[in-house]
Specification:
Elements: E1 7-8, H1 18-29, H2 53-70, E2 76-81, H3 84-96, E3 103-107, H4 110-122, E4 125-130, E5 153-157, E6 159-160, E7 165-166, E8 178-181, E9 198-202, E10 213-218, H5 219-222, H6 236-241, H7 251-266, H8 269-290, E11 294-296, E12 307-312, H9 317-330, E13 333-334, E14 345-348, H10 355-372
Parallel strand pairs: 1-13, 3-4, 3-5, 5-8, 8-9
Antiparallel strand pairs: 2-10, 6-7, 9-10, 11-12, 12-14
Helix pairs in contact: 1-7, 2-7, 3-4, 8-10
The protein binds pyridoxal-5'-phosphate.
């Protein structure tokens, strides 16, 4: 079977809604903002100044939608930065590490480990729990975490893109500011974001294209003075003061992010999108659980609704996995190869991924198992 447009299971950059492609393509040709008769409005989003009123309106709408659609509390600061989530791994300890206090981290996967590495290079770091010993197949229960009281902050990765695990609920961190890497599940369902002191997410999964990083935080956290060695561009205070326009932002990426958030709003917000996501993931996990060829990597209770990971059984598992991925690609199912660090398979089924694509995958898996299992 060949299809005009494959189902895109890529982990990121990832699938975006078709209507967002259309809306964005039009803005690349000519913005034509209703009610804006400036010359910029007659130009492409790719060529207008980030200091123009036309871009200002796009930027401000994007920020307003981050509050309204994603549920970031109104009194939080919202920044749209560059450098990806990876730059946040370094900016966090630089800006929010408190001398004499450890920064606490929960190690639930490769991205957590990268965040921990940056913190270790900059100051005392405490790993309060880790699931590394079981190939990050679960989120360690909060009751097993070591004490992190008195830490400068507690950092968690809410969804582990590579291993396919997800916190069912954001943890309670008491008086310690909770910092969350929400890169791969932001906007995927309602979340208690008021528990979060600072949250961040690379846009390229649920929010838009690569090259924009959303950061939101309680104002008092961002008003802290960073130590003298921290360069101007790496200080949160710089970006707060300049409303994310300290240097030229990713104007195109911010427009797409705004379009994606408009789409989520039209769909009924994170509540409605979350129900669809639960249904999609539920179908896929049910198929894995009833299979004797495929098995889900993530343990029940820790399973991600965004990235579903699995392996194939049997002695010839590597060859079989290769065959499976090749046959899937031929059937128009793209991007199912697991991350190079874990192997196996992964279906990233972010907000924009259609339910019929999950049905197609489930049917394909059943057929593969029946004929080649
Ligand atoms: C959970 C998580 N954190 C951080 C990153 C790194 O993001 P970036 O490539 O934007 O630096 C990723 C990338 O996939 C991720 O999934």
């Amino acid at each position: 079977m060949s299809v005009a447009r494959p189902y895109n299971f890529s982990a990121g950059p990832a699938i975006l809604p078709t209507s967002v492609f259309e809306e964005t393509a039009a803005a690349v040709r000519q913005l034509n903002v209703p009610g804006d008769d400036s010359l910029e409005s007659k130009l492409s989003i790719l060529e207008i100044s980030h200091r123009s009123k036309t871009f200002d309106a796009i930027h401000n709408e994007a920020i307003a939608l981050v509050h309204e659609v994603l549920g970031v509390p109104d009194d939080y600061e919202v920044l749209l930065l560059q450098g990806g989530a990876s730059l946040q791994f370094a900016m966090l300890p630089m800006n929010l590490g408190v001398p004499g206090k450890a920064a606490a981290y929960v190690d639930t996967g490769a991205w957590s480990a990268k965040a921990i590495k940056e913190s270790k290079g900059l100051g005392e770091t405490l790993v309060v729990a880790s699931s590394k010993d079981t190939t990050y197949d679960h989120i360690p229960a909060e009751a097993t975490w070591s004490d992190f009281a008195g830490s400068s902050y507690l950092h968690v990765t809410s969804n582990n893109t590579i291993y396919g695990t997800e916190f069912a609920e954001l943890p309670d961190s008491g008086d310690v500011p909770l910092i969350v890497d929400l890169s791969s599940n932001i906007g995927s369902r309602p979340m208690a974001l008021d528990k979060v002191a600072l949250g961040y997410a690379g846009a390229q999964k649920n929010l838009g294209p690569s090259g924009v990083t959303l950061v939101f935080a309680r104002k008092e956290l961002l008003s802290r003075e960073a130590p003298g060695y921290v360069p101007t561009i790496l200080r949160y205070g710089t970006h707060v003061e300049k409303n994310s326009l300290f240097n030229t932002p990713n104007t195109f990426g911010i427009l797409v992010l705004r379009n994606v958030l408009r789409w989520v709003k039209r769909r009924g917000g994170v509540e409605a999108v979350g129900k669809v996501n639960a249904a999609k993931a539920g179908k896929l996990y049910a198929a894995l659980d009833e299979s004797s060829l495929f098995s889900a990597h993530a343990k029940e209770g820790s399973r991600s609704q965004m990235n579903v990971t699995w392996t194939l059984g049997g002695e010839d598992r590597d060859a079989k996995t290769k065959d499976f991925l090749a046959a899937a690609a031929t059937a128009g199912l793209s991007g199912l190869k697991g991350h190079r660090s874990v192997g196996g398979c992964r279906a990233s089924i972010y907000n924009a991924f259609p339910e019929d694509g999950v049905d197609a995958l489930v049917e394909f898996m059943r057929e593969f198992e029946r004929t080649q299992g």
